[in-house]
Amino acid sequence: xxxxxxxxxxxxxxxxxxxxxxxxxxxxxxxxxxxxxxxxxxxxxxxxxxxxxxxxxxxxxxxxxxxxxxxxxxxxxxxxxxxxxxxxxxxxxxxxxxxxxxxxxxxxxxxxxxxxxxxxxxxxxxxxxxxxxxxxxxxxxxxxxxx
Length: 147
Prior knowledge:
This protein has 147 residues and is an alpha+beta fold. The protein has helices at 37-54, 106-114, 134-144; strands at residues 4-10, 13-21, 27-36, 83-84, 86-92, 96-103, 125-133.
């Protein structure tokens, strides 16, 4: 589950944080991923089309600044920052939503392409599946492509 998000743009990528914050404003859980600018460009048409279908948020999502991770909290920050290549979104009852993040090997895709592997199936690796209110998903999509 997630009820907060934050997008930090850097040169060549966007760092996206999701958080689950309770009523006492305590961070219960968190998750972060990286989107390269190339991936954002490749996904833009489909994500904007989906965003147009679900519309803009009907309520304002709270602004959230994720707490900085301390070095002693993690053995390797890279282990906690998977790179996203594909996003699958859905929603139901105009209240709930789901965001699935996937990754795949560019090298494997290039190898399949070189071998003419049109009938080959390349299975992506699942990174995470987050559930949230649809307004969080709407706000995330709106901010993802707004600079």
